[in-house]
UniProtKB/TrEMBL annotation:
It comes from the Bacteria. This is DUF1963 domain-containing protein.
Length: 345
């Protein structure tokens, strides 16, 4: 199936020509529940990994303010809650039975970490054939992203990037190692998803625009908003119209612009050569919410019939960054060998 982003309400670059040179292509990944194979692009699916290549592990310090849990704990907890949400119940009937509540408490209790290196967890696998504009070194056609599913110094999971030539993997690994520890709430454990990539055009978040342009955009946005919301004319509404409707697409995506939100932008400079890095991958806590409903794909605008379960339509991977934010991975345009950068917005 395809996913189709609705046309933006207006062609903002025709109204503000200064934005035209700032247009960038992003590829919305539109992850949806599925059973991907190692030979497909996916979120949270199995990786095409050579059997003779060492699986990466994390040896960094982790945030120990809350006990980690096991990957099996997360899977069993999600299965328990999914079944509970899907079964019919009366208006005064509890979601869980006493036995299920006790089991859930056990699964959420956590365990002390043994301090051993933690095997990394697959996050994304992106084939060049599926993802328009996927940056790859010469001879590579596959990007694989793994991370340590625990909080680190940046309050983010630590990502690990691998580019490879898919055709060179003739003896793939069948049963990769799994991490002994994941974050207490399982926020960094993506559910398997197949992808429906879709190129879209983005413009910078308001935080990255020159002040003069931003001021004129704000005046225009308020006037544009009150055309359809006259009741808001005296309340300053519409200031976020450009940000939420016309600039940066929400959700998991490749490339485009960074979704700066609760902080002002700062230079994302390569630690090796000081070149400005560009967004590679945005990991999102959800593809839409109350402020980004106009970005809901046309194919997803009719709510599913019947109970939804634990896995909400707006967040099939079930990944949560911070308090519902985004994690961006930036790479240096000079060399794929230079270390990447991570940011939360």
């Amino acid at each position: 199936m395809v996913r189709t982003t609705p046309l933006r309400p207006v062609d903002i670059a025709s109204i503000f020509p200064e934005l035209a040179p700032l247009a960038r292509q992003a590829v919305r990944l539109h992850p949806r529940p599925g059973i991907p194979t190692p030979y497909e692009s996916s979120i949270g699916g199995p990786l095409l990994w050579p059997a003779n290549e060492k699986w990466p592990v994390c040896t960094e310090m982790h945030d120990d303010s809350e006990l980690p849990v096991s990957l099996d704990d997360v899977r069993r907890r999600r299965a328990l809650l999914e079944a509970a949400w899907l079964r019919p119940r009366g208006p005064k009937e509890n979601l869980l039975s006493q036995e299920e509540r006790a089991l859930l408490d056990t699964l959420q209790a956590g365990h002390p970490s043994d301090g051993e290196p933690n095997a990394l967890l697959p996050v994304a696998q992106l084939y060049l054939r599926d993802i328009p504009g996927l940056p790859c070194p010469d001879g590579a056609d596959l990007l694989q992203v793994l991370w340590c599913p625990l909080d680190h110094e940046t309050s983010l999971p630590a990502a690990y990037l691998v580019w490879r030539d898919a055709a060179s993997v003739v003896d793939p690994l069948v049963s990769p190692p799994e991490p002994a520890d994941v974050d207490h709430y399982g926020n960094y454990v993506p559910e398997p998803c197949i992808l429906h990539p879709e190129p879209v055009i983005e413009y910078p978040a308001p935080h990255e625009l020159p002040e003069d342009l931003l001021d004129r955009l704000a005046v225009w946005a308020r006037a544009e908003w009150t055309k359809s919301h006259p009741e808001d004319e005296d309340h300053g509404s519409g200031d976020a119209y450009y940000q939420y409707e016309l600039s940066v697409a929400p959700g998991w995506k490749l490339g485009g612009w960074g979704p700066w939100s609760f902080s002002d932008p700062w230079p994302m400079l390569c630690a090796t050569c000081k070149t400005e890095c560009r967004p590679l991958l945005t990991v999102s806590s959800g593809e839409w919410d109350g402020g980004s409903g106009s970005w809901i794909p046309l194919e997803d605008r009719v709510p599913p019939a019947g109970p939804v379960g634990l896995r909400e339509p707006s967040d099939p991977p079930m990944v949560s960054i911070g308090r519902g934010y985004n994690m961006q991975i930036y790479i240096c345009p000079v060399s794929f060998d230079h270390p990447h950068l991570e940011n939360m917005q």
